[in-house]
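assembly run, all chains below
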Amino acid sequence: MPVQEIKFYQTGSLVVGNRLLDPERRTVQADPGRPNTLTSGHRACQGCGEALGARYAVDAAHRATGGRIVVVNATGCLEVFSTPYPETSWRVAWLHSLFGNAPAVATGVAAALKVKGRTDVRVVGQGGDGGTVDIGFACLSGMFERNDDVLYICYDNQAYMNTGVQRSGATPPAARTATTQAVGPEPGNPFGQGKNAALIAMAHEIPYVATATVADLRDLEYKVHRAMEFRGARYLHVLVPCPLGWATASSDTIRVARLAKESGLFPVFEAEHGEITAVSKIRRKVPVEEYLRAQGRYAHLFGDPPRTDVIAALQALADRNIRRFGLLDEEG
Amino acid sequence: MDRPFAITLEVGSSLANKTGAWRTERPVYLDRFPPCNQNCPAGENVQGWLYHAESGDYETAWRILVDDNPFPAVMGRVCYHPCQTACNRGRLDEAVGINAVERFLGDEALRRGWTVPVEAEPSGKRVLVVGAGPAGLSAAYHLVRLGHEVTVVDSAEEPGGMMRYGIPRYRLPRDVLAAEIQRILDMGVRFEAGRTVTDLRAEMERYDAAFLAVGAHVARRAYIPAGDSARILDAIKMLRDTAEAEPPQIGRRVVVYGGGNTAMDAARTARRLGATDAVVVYRRTKDRMPAHESEVADAEAEGVRMKWLSTIARADGGKVLIERMRLDETGFPQPTGEYEELDADTVVLALGQEPDLALLEGLPGVEIDKGVVRVGPNMMTGYPGVFAGGDMVPSDRTVTVAIGHGKLAARHIDAWLRGTQYTPPPPPPPATYDRLNTWYYSDAPAQLRPRLEVARRITTFDEVEGGLDESTALFEARRCLSCGNCFECDNCYGVCPDNAVIKLGPGRRFMIDYDYCKGCGLCAAECPAGAITMVPEET
Amino acid sequence: MLKQTEGSQAVAEAVALCRPEVICAYPISPQTHIVEGLSRLVKSGALAPCEYVNVESEFAAMSVAIGASAAGARAYTATSSQGLLYMTEAVYNAGGLGLPIVMTVANRALGAPINIWNDHSDAMSQRDSGWLQLYAEDNQEAADLHIQAFRIAEELSLPVMVCMDGFVLTHAYERVDLPSLRQVDAFLPPHTPSQVLDPDDPVSIGAMVGPEAFTEVRYLAHLRHLRALEVIPKVAAEFAAAFGRDSGGLVRPYRLDDAETVIVAMGSVLGTLKDVVDERRAHGERVGVLAITTFRPFPFAAVRRALRGARRVVVLERTLAVGVGGVVTDHVRAALADAAPEPGGAVPYLRTVIAGLGGRPVTTASLHGMLDRAVTDRLDPLTFLDLRHDLIDREARRERAAERV
Amino acid sequence: MFQVRIHGRGGQGVVTAAELLSIAAFLEGRHAQAFPTFGSERTGAPVVAFCRIDDRPIRVREPVARPDALIVQDATLLRAVNVFDGLGPDAYVLVNTTRDLRELGAAEAVATLRPERVRTVPATALAREHLGRPVPNAVLLGGFAALTGLVSLESVCAAIRQRFAGRVADGNVAAAERAYAYVSATTKEAIDA
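ok done. output:
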C-alpha cells in the first residue's frame, strides 16, 4: 500500500512544532532544549516582533553551528532592550559597538577568528532597518563587496522605533511616522522613496540573500540554516512588526507580518549569487486593505472620506511584487 | 576573564528582571467543548479518540471510543454523524470524516480482537434489561462495566433489535453486528432469547432495577381503500423478513408510502428483491422528508423514483391512485383534487412505528404519553427502579440516540443502585469556529470511502459503503482541528517573545511562566485551536 | 638593523615586527605609504598570520579594528586628518570599550580649506577620546613608539595613538635602526586580552549604562589613564634597556638645567628647535627645550618638574584652537598653576606661538626671530609665527569696514 | 653639513633622486636626510626635493634655503622658477641639458659662481640610451658624484642597485657611470682652462 504523503496541519510547515514529527524535522523553537540565545527578562515591548525574530534567528544560527557563534549588534531597540546595565538577555558571545558599524565590526571579528584559525566559529551581525539600510549601509556594502564571512540579519520594523518612530529608508509609502506625519494633502511617507535592501544585497552577488517574516518560523529557520551552509557574505532581511510604531495590537504581531506577505507587499524569497532561487508563494491572497486596516500607522487612509486612491496605489505596489516575484501559483 | 565594569555583562543575567509585572492580562489555557463531542447523541469524546488515531495509536483511540460507545463498527456504518454536521472543519473545507475513522477503528478492533475488561468490583446488584437493541445492549454494556449483574431479555431469537431486523444488510453486515454484540455478551451479560416480558412487576421481584428498551416495532397503519387483489405490506415486516432470509414476494413494481428512513430502506430493499420500478410516494416536499438526505441520495442513485406532494387515495388491481397535494402556508399538505395512476404490484407502508408497551400494564406511576413512556432527566419512569430509553421514550429514533440513552440510563441506574445521584459535569465553553486560527491548518481534502457500483448494489445485499484503509484513515484523523483543545503544536511555546511559555513534555502540554509573561497575547492569538484565553489581571 | 629608509616604511616594518593580526585601513595622505608597506608585507606572506582588510572608509577601519580587538586579535590601523574625524565616533567607542588598538596618525591639518600638509589639528581634535597619544620627534622614535605602543595598550587595555608629523616624518628618508623580530618578541609578549568574544565563555560587551553607573565607568577610565602615567615611563625604560635607545616616555628635557627660557613643543619641530637652542647656547643664552612625548594622559607633574626654575615658557603649538589660542598652552598653564604654592603665587611668563599650520615650514630663522623677542620679553601672549600680513591686511580692513556698516 | 636641492618636474623622479643620494651617503657611514616639498604630486608640475648630508645626526627639518649644491633635472625650469635662489658663491650646479646654459638664459645667474662648479650633462639622452626611458634622476647622481666628490660613484651605484633591480638597475648604473665620466671630463677641461 503506497503510504500517501501526510500533509495535515501538524506536519504542514505552518505550526511551530509537531508532536508527531521526528525530532530532527522539528523546528528549533519547538525544542524544549532550545538555546534561548535571547532569554527572558529583556525590556522589549509586549508583542515585540524584533525580540521574537532575533531569538528565532540567533537560536537557529546557534543550532546550525553547534553554538559556535559570535553576534555583533548595531545600536537600536534590540541592543537597548537586551543589554541595559546591569543585565543582559544574551546568552551568546555578543558585542555592541555603534549604530552604523555593525557590519564592519563583524568583519573585524571574522578577520580575527580567521587569523586565529577558529573557522568553526561563525559571525552574525544584526541590527534594525535604520542601522542597516541607512546609517550602516556603507559598512554593509563594504562587507558584502569584500565577501567577508558574516551573516548579517536586518530586523526590519520599517522605522526608527528606538528614538520614537521616525521615518527610515525602509519606511513604506503612506505610513505615518513621527517625521512623516498623517497631515496635509499627502499624509504619511511619500511614494517613490525608500530602498529594497535585499535587492541591493543581491546586486553585490554575494552567496546568499533571503527575506523572511516572523510569521513563518520554519521558513526563517530554514533560511538561517541555509545561510550557514555558505562561506562569505550573507544577508537575511526579516520583517518584524512593531506594535508601538505600527500602532497594532501586541497580539497582532504575527498576524500582521502574515498579512504583509499574503498581500504581496512583502515578498519572501531566496537568492544565491545574485539570482533568485525560490519564492514563498502567497497561500491565501488578501487585499492590501486588510493589512493596512490592522495598523494605526495607516489609519489616515480610512478616514472620512477614505483615501481609496492611496490604497489603490499600495495595492498596485503589491500587485507589482506579485508579478515581479511570481508570488501567486498559476492556478492561484 | 576580568570583566570591565558595567560595559561587559554576565550572559543571561536579565533573568533577574521579572517582566511579568508589566502584565495587564494573563494568558490561561483551557479546554473547550468541541462541536463534534457536543453533538454526539452517544456522548462520544470524538476529538479525544481522534487525537490518538492521529498518532496511529488506534487501540488507545478505540478504547477511548468504547468508553462511551460499545458499537464503533456499527456506528461507523449506520450513524448519521451529527458530529460531522457540526464539525468546524466544514467551514474551512470539508468536515472531518469522523464516521469513517470510527468505522476503521471498529473494524480494526474486530480484526485484532480487542476486548473491554470489566474492572469494577461486583456490586451484587442485578439489573434486568428488556430489549436487546442498541439502547438495551448499550445499557447492559455500561452496567456490566460498573460491576452489576445484567440480564438482557428479548422476544427475538437474536440480539440486535432494529440493528438486526430494521437496518438492511447492505448498510450493516450481520457479521459486524454479531461480532460487536458478542464482545458485549463476552463481558458477562446474560442474554435470554425468545422471551417476551409480559409482567414486569413480577420480574422486578428478582431484580434491583430494570431498563426497558423494547423499541418501536409496531407499524403505524393508515386507512387506504383497497380492493381484494391489492397487496399491501408493512415496511417493518418486509425488512424483518428479508433480514431473516424469508423475503416476501413483492412483484416488479413497488410503491413505498412514506418519507422516513424506513421508507428508503424499504424502497432500496425492494430494488434488491427484484423490483424494476420502486417509487416512494410522500405527501410533502423533498426538503421536508424525515429521511436522512444521504439515504435519499442513495435510493435515487439506485433508481428509486420519488413522488413528492402525493398521497395514495386507493390501491387495487395492480394500480394505485395518487392524489397530488400542495402545501398550505403552515406547510401542511392539502389535497388538490388532481389524480394520477401508478402501476403497483405491491404497496409498502412505511408510515412510522410505535412501541408495544404491554409489559407496563399494571405498573403504578408509569405515564404513557402519545404512545411513548415518559421518563425523567435520569431516564427513570414513574415506577422507582424502572428506567426506559430508546425508541420507546420521546426522542429521535436513531441507533446513536439509543446508544446514548443506554449509557445515560446505565449511569443513573448505577447511581440509583448505590443510593446516590449522578450529575453529569457542567459542559465546558463551546469551541466555536471564530476562536480558531485556521491559518495553521494546512489544506487537506476529505478522504472518500469507496462505494459499491450501482449495478452490484441493486442485485445484491453486499455492503454499499466501504471503509478507509490505514493510510486514508490516518490522514482523515489528522484533519481534525482539535477545536478548543491543546494538541501540542508548540505555537505558544514558539511565538512568545519573552520565552515565558514552559513546555512540559509530550502529553503534558504547557505552562505560562508568569514571572516573565508580559501579557502580549500572542500565544492566544496564534493558538490554532483557540485553547488559550486572555483574562484581565486584578489590579 | 640600521638602514636609510622612509619614515612610513620604517613604521610599517616596526608595526610588522609587533605581529599585528588584523590590519585595516583606508587611504589618505600622508598615511598611505605606511599601509601600502604593510599590505605588501601581508600579501607577500612576510607578515603572517595577519589579515589585511581594505575597508570602505576610516569609520569602517576603526570599526573593523574594534571587532578584531574584541575578538582578541592585535589590531592596527592608520589615518590622518579628515580620516581621523570621519572615524571619530568609532575612536571614542574603542576608547570607551578599552580595546588595545594601536593607530598611527600621520598628522595633517583639518579643512576647510582642504589642506593635506602637516600640523596637529587632527590628533588634537581627539585628545579626549580616551586614547593615549604619543608624539614622535623623528622617524627612529616613530618606529620605536609603535613597538612600545602595543605594550602599553595591552598592559592597560587602552587604545594608543602614535602621532607622527605628516610628510615631514612620513616622507622623510633618514637612518632608522629597526630591531630584530626576536628582540621585539622578547619585549612584546603575545596579546592576552582582558576580555574576548568567545563562544566557550560568552559575555555581552558594550552594554548601555545609565546615570546610575555612567559616572563610575568614566571615573574608572580616568584612573586607568592615570595608571598610564606610570606604565608609559616604565615601558620606555624597559625599551631603553632592551634596545639601548631612549624613546618614548612622558616628556624629554633638552638643556633645561639653568634654562631661563624654555620652549615647549611636540613632534618633528623639536629637531629644528634643538639646533636653534644649541646655536643660542653657543652665545651663552640660557634656553632649553621641553619635548612632550605623551600628550594623553597629560603629564602635569612631569611638566611642572621640568619647568621648575624657568622664567619664561614659550609653547610652540602646531594647532590653533580658534578663538582661544594654544591647546598645549592651556595644559602647561594648568601644570604651572599647580606649581604656584599659594593663591596668586607667581606663575612664570607664558607665551603661545602658533607655528607651522597646514605645512608651513618652521625655519630656524623664524625661530631665532621669535626667541629674540621672547628673551627680551617682547613676545605677544599669542604669536602667529611668520604670519604674512601682506596676505591678510586687505581682508582684515575689509572686514572691519563691513562691521561699521 | 652639506645641503642639496633638486629641481625637476613630477614624473622625473626628483624625490627618488634625493632619496638615492641620501642612501649613497648613508652607505658611506654618513648621516643623511632626504625629503620632498610635499604636495599631491602631479606629472609635469615643478617639484623640489632636498638632501642633507653630515657626519653627525641631522635634526633640522626646514627646507633647504641655502643649498651647497643644486641639481636641475629639467632645464625648462631655469626660466619658470628661480632655481638659483639662496645659492652661495661656492655652490655647485648640475643641469640636465645638451645645450649651453647661456642659451637657456641662466648666464646671469651662474656668472657669480665658480665656472668649474657649474656643469651640464645630457642625462635624459643618456637615460634614453641606457634605460629606453627619459628618466634622468639616477643618471644625474653619477654626474653629481663627479662634480662634488661628496659621494663616490660606487656609493651612487650601490644606492641605485638597492632601490632598483634588473634592467632598470643596470641601465641606471651604466648611464650614471657615463654621466660620471662625462662630468669628470668637462670639469677637468674647465679646471685646465
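The mean pLDDT of chain D is 93.

The helical segments of chain D are 14-27, 77-80, 107-111, 123-131, 137-148, 153-163, 166-192.

not gonna interpret more than that til we talk
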